[in-house]
Amino acid sequence: MEVGINMETDSKKEYSKLIGIVGLLLIIASWILSFFETAGSNLSYISYVVLGIGVFIEILAVILGYPFIREYFMKRGTRKGLTSTLIIIIVGTVFVSLYYITKVHLQWEKDLSTKLFSLSKQSKDAIKTLKSPLNIIVLSEKERVEDNTRELLKAYRDEQKEMIDIEYRPPFRYPELFDKYKIPKDPRGLGAIIIEKRDSKPLHYLSLLRQDLYDYVPGRGRPQQVFKGESKITEKIALLQETKKLTIYNSEGHGEKSFENSERNGYSQLKNTLLRENYQLKTLSLLTEKKVPKDCDLLIIASPIQPFSPKEIEAVITYLKKGGKALILMDPEVQKVKPGLAKLLAEWSIKSDHSIVLDPKATAVLDRTGRVFQVGLYGHHRIIEGLSSKNLRILFYLARPFWIDTDKQRSNVTITPLIFSSELGWGERDPLNPRLDKNKPDPSDLKGPVNYVLAVEEKLGKDKEIRLVLIGDSDFLTNEMARGITSALGYYGNAKDLFMNSVSWLTKQEKKITIRPKEVKRRTLDLIGNRKTMIWVISLLILPFSVVGLGMAVYSKKKKMK
């Protein structure tokens, strides 16, 4: 009888082992099948079915063999073996995890070096046309320079090794470089990049501060930092190849905004940008000069408060008809502005009046003053293609509308709306009492969509043309906006891009039009709510106390065995 029982027990043990092996093989088979999955195949479904059957059989094997499993694990030798196995598994898991993390990190670095820091076509073209060799000097130890900057500079050198040389010079060893290259002697100067013509006399160079390599764009919660190193460095390289500085004249005498004014309403921030781009700035009073100077490459009229006289208007028109270029910024008359430029605009079939642009679909109130900003839609033009492609918006405050008199437009004149309202927008012709709560225009208002930034081009011959850019606002570019919330949210940088791109197009320096930076995607894990708490509890409480508890248990067990 006892022999029969033993035979039955042995039989159950063998059956449970066999079933367990079959279940394990099915699980392994499902894992192998998952490697051969392709789009549209049924292997994914089959592998899940096989996995389910395998897991079911494994559970059945455990139920049948439970007495034998329990007996096996109660043995002292088994417990010791399990402890050793557990330690091996933990150590192995740690090493596998470290290997995986290292592999992913190395692959990430490889992706960065081969994709993010591969130069754009614009940069490669600029380097290929180098006429003079360049030295690029970085005021920092190489190890202290950010990876993105260091790898980018390496990409420039690798593209033209004979024409570009890179040197890293620690400031504490070369303090004289601050004076030589006019670099600020404070933390802003650390990491500055100087690009100079090699063996040039007199010294010919351009510089970039570390902060110039980055910009901020609106993001979730707070502005996101974007690396713009390639666009900035390529611009400087292109500028160094030019033999002539272009001259910009800013009109004065009518209350225009001044590039010398560092107060809230001034344009000194724009002046610094223009100087870094190798332009030279001069002022022009047509009341005394009578005509626009011959060396004027671009005339800027920045929001005159008092009207131009008829003779001044004629002087500007005469300059433009000889192939001149002008950037005109006009605020609405609600701000007590009377530019008196109607005749100048009419010369190119453009009209404007005292109304202001309102658009219930595109308004934003951002600051404590409750000022209402308009966010326009983009047209299609070289000036705004970078902004439009990235959906980077510009905030305008009380913009003036422009419209085209198509009946009087000459055939050789091309007028392109750059920024305009939605179809729901309109030109409010009661600007002193604008009703921001109404959702449609009055019969007397200017129907939408209404333009508030225009580009005008008139062909005069094979190699001669007139270019104008009209902007119905000037406040969005002031120092106040550069230092306020619009800057913190990234909007001022977009406004500055519009201004500088307009200047580049007007002066036929299209290569300076901003190369939009490659987007650096944030590789971070956002932990919110319970996830963050759970990781904190596991890492700071459960894991440390588990190790301590395991150590105490082992120590207690050994003490009892003695």
SSE inventory with pairings:
Elements lengths: L1 H33 L8 H22 L1 H8 L2 H41 L4 H8 L5 E5 L8 H13 L4 E5 L7 H5 L12 E5 L7 E4 L5 E4 L6 E4 L1 H12 L5 E6 L16 H9 L2 E6 L1 H4 L8 E5 L7 H12 L3 E5 L12 H5 L3 E2 L4 E3 L4 E3 L6 E4 L1 E2 L6 H5 L5 E3 L5 E2 L8 E8 L5 E3 L17 E2 L3 E9 L5 E7 L7 H5 L1 H4 L2 H16 L22 H33 L1
Parallel strand pairs: 1-2, 7-8, 7-9, 9-10, 10-22
Antiparallel strand pairs: 1-3, 3-4, 5-6, 11-17, 12-19, 13-14, 14-16, 15-18, 18-21, 19-20, 21-22
Task: Describe, in plain words, how this protein is organized in 3D.
It contains 17 helices and 22 strands. The chain is an alpha+beta fold. The chain folds into 4 domains: 112 residues, no CATH class; 127 residues, Glutaredoxin (3-Layer(aba) Sandwich), CATH 3.40.30; 264 residues, Class I glutamine amidotransferase (GATase) domain (Rossmann fold), CATH 3.40.50.880; 27 residues. The strands form 6 sheets. Strands 8-7-9-10-22-21-18-15 form an 8-stranded mixed sheet. It has a 4-stranded mixed sheet with strand order 2-1-3-4, covered by helices on one side. Strand 7, helix 9 and strand 8 form a beta-alpha-beta unit. It starts with a helix and ends with a helix. About 4% of the residues have low confidence.
